């Protein structure tokens, strides 16, 4: 991500600075910055099309985090609101990702299984 900012800087210091601003100092130990990062990456794709391949590679990695950082840590699943809706988050010693919210249990568990073998879910659906 930061290497893309370095590459874009010659063409657009403003775009490079915007990319650097959305990458947290911790280099993204959680996913809170991802929506802003996607927005800035889309700006780069439109404003600096020569970097489109790098943008697509980063977006693909964001879409498949487990494939890029591996299955590890623990997923926490809990009831989320009223009725049969659930939510989850995935954590490890150096990562935190918010999962589905207000979703059916099967959707949440499918998301969880892609991330970890250790799924902490409430007893019985």
How far apart the termini lie comes to 40 Å
Quaternary assembly: single chain
Q: Total helix count? A: 6
Beta-strand residue fraction: 15-25%
The major beta sheet can be summarized as: 4 strands, mixed
Globally, the shape reads: elongated
How many distinct folded domains? 2
- Provide the spatial order of strands within the biggest beta sheet: 3-2-1-4
Task: Let me know the average pLDDT.
Answer: 84
- The share of residues in helices is 40-55%
Structural class: alpha+beta
What string, H for helix and E for strand, traces the elements in order? HHHHHEEEHE
Low-confidence stretches: none
How many beta-strand segments? 4
Rg computed from alpha carbons, rounded to a whole number of angstroms: 17 Å
Explain what you see.
- α1 (2-9) packs antiparallel against α2 and α2 packs antiparallel against α3 (34-47).
- The radius of gyration is 17 Å and the shape is elongated.
- The mean pLDDT is 84.
- β2 (86-92) and β3 form a beta hairpin.
- It has 6 helices and 4 strands, in the order αααααβββαβ.
- Helices cover 46% and strands 15% of the residues.
- The chain has helices spanning 2-9, 13-22, 34-47, 52-63, 65-69, 105-113, and strands at residues 74-79, 86-92, 95-98, 119-120.
- It folds into 2 domains: 2-63, no CATH class; 71-120, no CATH class.
- The chain is of the alpha+beta class and 125 residues long.
- Strands 3-2-1-4 form a 4-stranded mixed sheet, with helices on one face.
């Amino acid at each position: 991500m930061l290497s893309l900012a370095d590459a874009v800087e010659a063409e657009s210091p403003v775009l490079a600075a915007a990319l650097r601003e959305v990458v947290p100092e911790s280099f993204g130990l959680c996913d809170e910055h991802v929506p802003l990062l996607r927005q800035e990456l889309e700006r780069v794709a439109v404003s600096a099309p020569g970097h489109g391949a790098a943008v697509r590679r980063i977006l693909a990695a964001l879409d498949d985090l487990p494939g890029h950082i591996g299955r590890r840590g623990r997923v926490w699943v809990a009831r989320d609101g009223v009725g049969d809706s659930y939510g989850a988050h995935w954590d490890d010693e150096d990562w935190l990702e918010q999962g589905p919210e207000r979703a059916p249990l099967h959707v949440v568990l499918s998301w969880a299984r892609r991330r970890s073998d250790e799924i902490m879910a409430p007893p019985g659906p």
